[in-house]
Amino acid sequence: MPTAPEQPEPQRPPKRGGRMGDQAAVEEVPVWLTLNGAPAVTWMCTPDLLEELAVGWLAGEGYIDGIDDVKLRPCATDLGFWADISPERVTAVTAEGRKPVLASGCGAVSIFLADTDSFVPAPRRGDPPALDLLRGLFKALFVRGERYRDTGGIHAAALTDGESLLAHAEDIGRHNAVDKVIGGCLLARRPIAGLGLLVTGRISAELAAKAARAGLAWVATPSVPSTLAVEIARRTGMVLVGRAVSGSPAAHGAPLSAIGYPLPDKLSDSTDSPSDSR
Q: CA–CA separation, 100 vs 269, rounded Å?
């Protein structure tokens, strides 16, 4: 598996009043993936859990359902992977007619986003845990955030069964962190359909699409979902929980009767705009 070039042991900057010093920085490197011989994607990411990142991305984009659907080979001399999958799966993804867009991630992130009509309508997949349990899960997520404590400049994600964290990852990109936890579970052959996802950033359309394709039941964030993410959740039967650690959380998405969560008075004002990079 490719690894980042060896570097001197980093000097951890001093903390001042709970905040990092000026020299705090988070690692960022390019990692490429070639799919069936053609360049597929280059991530700007934190250089760990790279096999998980590749597998999770393939699953989140709909190219594979499990680890047996891909042959993944790391490059020995560079940070990258060659992936081979069924040509029929590539054809199926291509047939969705996904449009190239600049995503609402940190910076100008180019992705291919499917139309919401391409998602198969489904009933509600499952419910998030009670609010006190959900806040406890986020507390556990924040406790694991070593890089966040060191730098204050990184995102985290975790998969959960509603009682404990099953997989955790940090990355400079929020979508990368999600790919890493999905890929980690797939590599461990742990079923992920029906699980929940915790994220520390806004729930964008791309992130909601990844969660929907992975079969997740709900996604929660201390931030808010975008309007397009809510539309994807409604169509696919997911529940999105915004402002999950605040005193005024709200559920969005799938039919929400009897869910036991506060409902928004109106749809969140957030949209998939490149200007909002939280």
A: 24
Q: Which residues are catalytic?
A: 106
Q: Which of 12-26, 108-122, 135-149, 242-256 has the lowest mean pLDDT?
A: 12-26
Domains contained in the chain, number: 2
**Dist. CA 101–CA 119, nearest whole Å:** 18
Q: 4-8: which pairs have CB atoms within 8 A and are 24 or more residues apart? A: 4/29, 4/47, 4/48, 4/79
207: containing domain: 131-253
Domain co-membership, 159 together with 112: no
Residue, of 234 and 255, whose pLDDT is higher = 234
HSE on the CB side for 145, CA within 13 Å?
25
Q: What percent of the chain has pLDDT over 70?
A: 76
Nearest in space to 63 (alpha carbons), one of 43, 37, 35, 42:
35
Vertex 65, ends 271 and 185: CA angle to 5°? 80
Final residue of a structural domain among 87, 116, 145: 116
Q: What is the pLDDT of residues 190-215, one digit of tens each?
A: 999 999 999 999 999 999 999 999 99
